[in-house]
Fold:
Amino acid sequence: MADLLAITVDERAAEVVVGVVGQLDFGTTPRLTGVVTPVVESGRPVVLDLGRLSFCDSSGLSALVRLHKAATAAGGSLVLARPGPQVAATISATALDRLFTIEAEVPDRSR
Amino acid sequence: MSPRRTPDSRTYDITRFGLSDMVRTAADLRRRAELASGFDAAADAVVTRLRECFTDGAGPVLPIVRLFTIRSRDELPPEQCPQVGEWFLVLAAEAGGRCTPVRALPPAAEFGSMPMLSAMTREFGLTPDDVLTGSLAGDGFGVFHVPVAAGSPHVRDQELVAELGIASVLGFGGVLPSGNGISGISGISGPPGLPGGTPFAVVMYSRAPIPASTAEQFKAVAIGLRVGLLTHGAGLPAERDALRAHLAVLEQAARDQATALEQAVDRLRAEAELVDSLQVVGRRLTAQLDLDALVQDATDAATKATGAAFGAFFYNLIDSYGESYTLFTLSGVPRSAFERFPMPRNTKVFAPTFNGTGTTRSPDILNDPRYGHNPPYRGMPDGHLPVRSYLAVSVVSPSSGEVLGGFFFGHPEPGQFTERHEQLAEGIAGYSAIALDNARLFARQRTMATELARSMLPTIPPTPGLRVISRYLPAATGAEVGGDWFDVVSLPVGRTAFVIGDVAGRGVAAAAVMGQIRTAVRSYALLDLPPSEVLRNTSELAMATPDADFITCLYAVHDPADNTLTFSSAGHLPAIYLSPEGTPTLVAETMGMPLGVGTTFTQQQIAFPLGARLALYTDGLVETRHGHLDDRIAKLAQSLRDLPAEDEALDTLITGLTDGAHDDDVAFLYIAHEDCDSHTAVLPLTTAPDAAARARAFIAARLADWGLTGVLDRAVTIASELVTNAIKHTGCPATLRLHAGTSHLGIDVSDSDLTQPRAVPVALDDEQHRGLHIVKSFATRWGTRATPDGKMVWAEIALPRQ
Structure:
């Protein structure tokens, strides 16, 4: 099940847009943190595009919290964009919508 | 003059002068008269003896005894004759008083001025004219009785009565036929050939009241004395006639006495029979608690006892709404004879019976002043059985005084019911009242007991895929609540616990223990403890509960996810498992001692596939005085082979086994695994990183198959958390199960870790511990339970109604 998670990083604009495609659980989360942690630690604003993330459980949420804390510590920011219904539901079920900045669209400031 | 020898010297009681007294006295007086030297001497001997032979502590009971004759002037010495009159009342002898020796008789028209004489004359069958003309038929005799002398017009000398304390006066005598004339009266013989005879009379004044029965006996004394007196005057033929008459009287007296004795014996026998039959009826009635049988029995008994052509018993009952209604039973006629008529109302005839004011007995009801006043029939309706003799008795509750009903008896002939019949009917009515009271109290008690037991019965929750039929029957005999119970408890993820138990003993104490134990089992069940643990905890509780000494209980859990039954038993009778083919097997035998005794209980799991059945029961169903318990259980198992899981079939089975006479309560649970719209799926889990992902894919595929994609997101999220937890905490393979019932989807993951997961509070930016919060918010309910080798975490999602 190698195709459970695919991550793309677009660093062409001031903000880094990270595309997260697939499912986030305890099996796939290490790959997300492995890729995204250096990006947020750079202090640049990061947008996680969750538009094609079909599943996220508490392991995924833990990773998101960790990334959020790392971004803040580096003086940067982390925005969650376009979460799907399952992802939005787990976020609100855990009250993390009060922690995260969530956007309905990926901010288009590059143009 | 005294007799030359004393033939008899006994004394008698004038108040109780019997047949043998009469015979002796008559013989004695006759003999004394015969032995006397002449008429006057005979008279003297007679009055003296009579005065002597009745004595009490205060002396002679008869202070004065006189013997009179009636004589004509010709028969008396001139010096004794008063100036006026032809006929005289002559005192022949007197004991204890002083009376005018000779008195002239008044003319016929004034005979009443000598009331005693007048009355005696009548008694002897004579008229005053007979006496005054001397034309006396020579064989009259009789008795004149004044039971109360004081104030009696027949006793002229009231001063004497007062002075001597005379209670009664008794006169007796007769007419002596004239033969050759009466001799020995002061030496003067009457002229021979005088027509008629000589009346004589003994008059006794008694301090003791003389009863009529004594007076009656003196008829024979009179004729005995007459025979004795005849010695002095009349010829032999006359004496013979007199003797014959005396014998005839004695025989008659003996016959009368014998008849009286026979009647007395009959009466006593009847009395004894009455008491006997009343007692038999009473015993039978008061032992009867079945109301219908009781009233019929009472009606039959009373109708027979009264000799009625037919009898009816109308009685009032209170229905469950508190309304009173009247029923009746009949005896001697078919029910159709009365069916067309309305219930009797409070008419004049019926009122005393319905109001309980007394027995009504009428020799002829048609001529009774109470009869025929009430419209519309003004009497009996057309077609009513003919009734002339009528008897009706109320049945009044001895406890409440309430009129419970009434017996009515009829006979087409008048004058059929006697006082005795009335007594009998009243006796039976009395017993009926007690019996009815008992039956009503018993029924009330029993209803209460049954209500109490029923109120403790659980409501059976829905058990999709299982048809559950339950029965609780209070003991058919006795009014006490028993200690049997059953329970059906819904457990998480579609599982169901079945409980059956029996607290030894009856009554409120057993019921109270039952209530506590039942609640305990239910509570431990809801904690989702394994069956053996439920029983162990309950047993420990029972040890600390007073009176909870011996309780058997069987606990079984059905799990629809894998179609299994898991049992434990605390000394309860084995359950009967029936395979889909109908083969019975006893299960859950000897798994532990009764609650309150045992501390360790084993556990057993069996498959419960589609078509299988399970029967749980208490000993009331199989324990009887006849037959071995094992045989009875085997019989039950065989009876269950082809028994459909339907109410009627089960009722028939129970009735057949108990014969409707179970003396213990019966609790019964019958569970059948039937097809229903449910699905199960099991996935063994690995510890690989993609284990959660595989579980989600598995669920997605199953829910798509089952048409349940509406809950897909919730299901996979919950499953992902449960699987992640299992793998992260134990590092061991676990098992995921899905069970889709009609109302919910169950997801559970079992692992080999004994630590129960807990949802801990998390701070907003905590990186961990959000898993169970997600489960909690995505599941309808969730929980954990211990399994034999670890734990299981489960969650349920309610399915939208289709």
The first strand of chain A starts at residue 5 and ends at 10. Chain A has one domain: 2-103. Chain A has three helices and five strands. The interface with chain B takes residues 1, 4, 23, 25-28, 55, 57-59, 61-62, 65-66, 68-69, 85-86, 89-90, 93-96, 98-99 of chain A (CB under 8 Å).
